[in-house]
Write a structure and sequence with these properties.
By secondary structure, the chain is mostly helical. The chain contains 5 helices and 2 strands; from the N terminus they run H-H-H-E-H-E-H. A two-stranded antiparallel ribbon has the order 1-2. The two termini are 25 Å apart.
Length: 94
């Protein structure tokens, strides 16, 4: 275990800190989390016309079960992403 840490949300995402992401997600409604994921481009094509690119999947918040409620926010459940999209999310947080 490690002690308490003070981080920005961008730092939490950039360092892939799942616990911090869930803690931040608890302060938002499902709809707000969904909107943020959409703003990051999750479930959408990148817009750079990659051959064979798919949009990925982002389940609607009313479809999230108790396992997905926060796992969708840390990209581990209820979302299917492309490598280019994932890189874009991480790259935008640093």
């Amino acid at each position: 275990m490690h002690g308490e840490q003070q981080r920005t949300f961008a730092g939490i995402i950039g360092d892939h800190m799942n616990t911090g992401t869930v803690m931040a997600g608890e302060k938002l409604t499902r709809e707000q989390r969904y909107e943020y994921l959409q703003k990051f481009g999750i479930g959408q094509k990148t817009g750079i016309q990659l051959p064979g690119e798919s949009a990925g999947l982002l389940a609607q918040p009313e479809e999230w079960d108790s396992r997905q409620e926060f796992s969708v926010f840390v990209w581990t459940g209820g979302v299917a992403d492309t490598a280019a999209n994932s890189h874009g999310v991480s790259g935008n947080c640093q």
